[in-house]
Amino acid sequence: MVGTDNDDATARDARLNRDRAGPDSRRAYSSMAASRNDLDDNDGDATEDEGLISGAGLDENHPSSASYLTRLVAVACLGGLQFGWDTGIASGMLVAIRGDLGHELSEGEQELIVSATTVGAIVGAVVAGRMSDWAGRKKVMIASAVLFLLGSLEQAASQVVRELVLGRVLVGLGVGMASMVVPTYLAEVAPTSVRGRIVGFNSVLITFGQVVAYTIDAALYNVTMGWRWMVLIGGAPAILQMVGLFYLDESPRWLVARGRIVSARRVLQRIYPTATNREVDMEIERIERSMRGTTSQVPEDPDERNGNGSGGGGGGGEDVEGRGSMTRISSVAPQILSTAAPKVKEAKGKLKLLWNEPNNRKALILACGLQFFQQMVGFNSLMYFSGRLLLMAGFTSNPNAAAIGIAVSNCIGTALGMRFVDRIGRRKLLLWATFGTTLSLALLSFSLSMVDVGPTSGTPSATVAASTETAAEGAAGAGAGAWAYLSLIFMIVFTLNYAVGLGILPWLIQSEVFAGPVRGIGAGLASATNWTSNLVISSTFLHLVKAITPAGSFALYALVAAASWYFTWTRLPDMKGVSLSDVQHSFGPSSSSGSGAAGGTATGAAAAYQAVATTEEDDEDDVDGRRR
C-alpha cells in the first residue's frame, strides 16, 4: 500500500507539471500514466483506468449534475428560441406590413425580406465554424445574441424596405452563428446517455419560438403598426441570453483542445460532481485522444498553467482574471501578426484532413446531405409563407390565427422526436419520419389541387381582396372551403412528421459525426449547406407557386423527400448509444488501419495536417519567448 501511495503521489505531481507545461510534457505524462497503470495491475486499478480511457466515460460511471446541466442547456438554447422566433415572425410580418413601408410589398420584395435573413445566416454559419474553434463556443454565442438584438431594433425602426432588409441580414448573421455553435456546444457538454435529448431540446425551443411568434402574429395582425412590435419583442430572448452567457462555462472539449487543462478539469468536475480527480484526469486523457492533433495548435495561457485562468467562463465569477491581464492586452497586436500565417495553414490543413480522410469525408457528405434535404423538402416555404398560402386558400380574416396549428404541431413533433431519439435510434427514427413526410406532402399536393386558390401573384392585399368577394367576416377561416381545411390538416400532418425526423436529426447528427480536429469547420460547412438551401427555397417559392401552382410545388417537394429517404437509407449508420468520442467508428475502420489507395491518401493528409500543427507549435514557442 505504501508503494501504491507513492505511485499516486508521483502521478499527481506529474499531472501538476503537465498542466504547467506544453504539449511535449503532456506526451511525457501519458507515458508516465501508462507506466503507473502497469504498477497498479495487482490492485485492479488498471482495469478501471482502461475503462475510462478506451471505453466508458465519466457519464457511464457517475451521474451528471442535473441543476448544472439545466443551466447550461437553458442559456445556450435561447439561441434556438431566437431562431424559431425569426422564422415564425416572417410569415405574419409579410401579410401585416401592408403599406407601412411606403407601398405594398411586391412578390420580389417579400422574397428579398425573407431571403435576406438566409443570406446573413449563410455568412454567420461559415464564420461561426472557424470562429468557434479560435475564440470558443461561448464567445460565438454572445456574438450571435448581440447581432440578433441589433437586427430586431433595426427592423422595428425601419421606414423603407432596404432598412428592413438590413435588419433581417443582422438577425440572419446571429441566427446562422447560433445554428452552428449551439448544437456543437450542447453535444460537447452532454453525457452520452442524454446527448440526443439535450441537443434536441434546442430544436424544441426553435419550434416553441415559432409557436410564440405565430401567436403574437395573430394577436397583432389587425393592430396598426403591429408588425413592428412583432420584431421588437424578439429582442428580449437575446438580452436574456447575453446576461446568462456571462455565467456559462466553456465547452470542456474546446478547453482541452486549446491546452487549458485547469479550466477543462473544473468544468468536468461541475458536470460530474461525484467523480474523483483521478477519474476526471483520465477523462481528459480520453478527450485528448479523440481530438488528437488539436492540443498543440495554440499556446497555453500562462495564467492557465498556474491554475488562475478564467477561460472556463461563468461559474458566478469564481475564476480569477490573473495578474497577466495587462500584459496580454499589450501583446495582442504582435501575437495577431505572428500567428496569422499559421492560422491560414491550419485552416488548409483541416480542410485537407476533412476531405482526404475517408471517415471525415463520409461524415461531411452525411451532414451536408441531411442539411440539404432538411431545407429542400420545402418546410420553410410553409413556415415563411404560410400566411400567404392560407390567404390563397381562403383564410382571409386572420390567416395568422389559422397558421398557429402548424406551429403547434411543429413543437409537438419536435418534443416527440427528442423523447424517442435515444430510445429508437437516429437511423430508424429518421427513416420512418421521412416516409411520413413524403406521404403527407403527396396528400397536401392533391388537396391543394382541389382548392380554388386566390391569385398566386401580386400583393397580399390583392389576394385578400380577391378571396373575400364572397367571404363572411369574423371567423379565422372565413372564405375557406372543405378542401382548404383538408389542406390545412395535411399541412399539420406534414409538419408533425417533418419535426420528428428532418426537423431535429440533421442538427443532432451534425454535432456528433465529426472528429475533434475538424468538428468546428465540418459543422460550419454543414450549417452553411443548410442556409444555402434555405436561401434557394425562400427566394424562389412565390415564383415557383406562380409557375407550377401550389399543388405542383408541394408535389415537387414530395419527390425531394423520397430522395431524402433513400439518402438516409444508404448513408446514415446506426449511432444509438455510441459515445461522442467513438461515433466515427460507425463509418468503418479509420485511415490509420486502412490500406490501399484510400489509406495512403488519408495518411498523407494526416501527415500534412500534423506538419501544420508542428510548424504552428514552433511559431507559438517563438511567441511565448517574446512574451517572456
UniProtKB/TrEMBL annotation:
TM stretches of this protein: 72-97, 112-128, 140-157, 169-187, 199-221, 227-248, 363-385, 397-417, 429-451, 483-509, 521-541, 547-567
GO MF annotation terms: transmembrane transporter activity
Keyword Membrane belongs to the record: yes
Segments of this protein annotated with the region Disordered: 1-58, 290-324, 609-628
GO biological process terms held by the UniProt record: myo-inositol transport; polyol transmembrane transport
Biased composition, class Gly residues, residue ranges: 308-317
A GO cellular-component term linked to this record: plasma membrane
Domain Major facilitator superfamily (MFS) profile: 72-576
Gene3D superfamilies xrefs: MFS general substrate transporter like domains (1.20.1250.20)
Comp. bias intervals (Acidic residues): 40-51, 615-628
PROSITE patterns: MFS (PS50850), SUGAR_TRANSPORT_1 (PS00216), SUGAR_TRANSPORT_2 (PS00217)
Family membership: Belongs to the major facilitator superfamily. Sugar transporter (TC 2.A.1.1) family.
Full protein name: Major facilitator superfamily (MFS) profile domain-containing protein
Species in which this protein is naturally found: Pseudozyma flocculosa PF-1
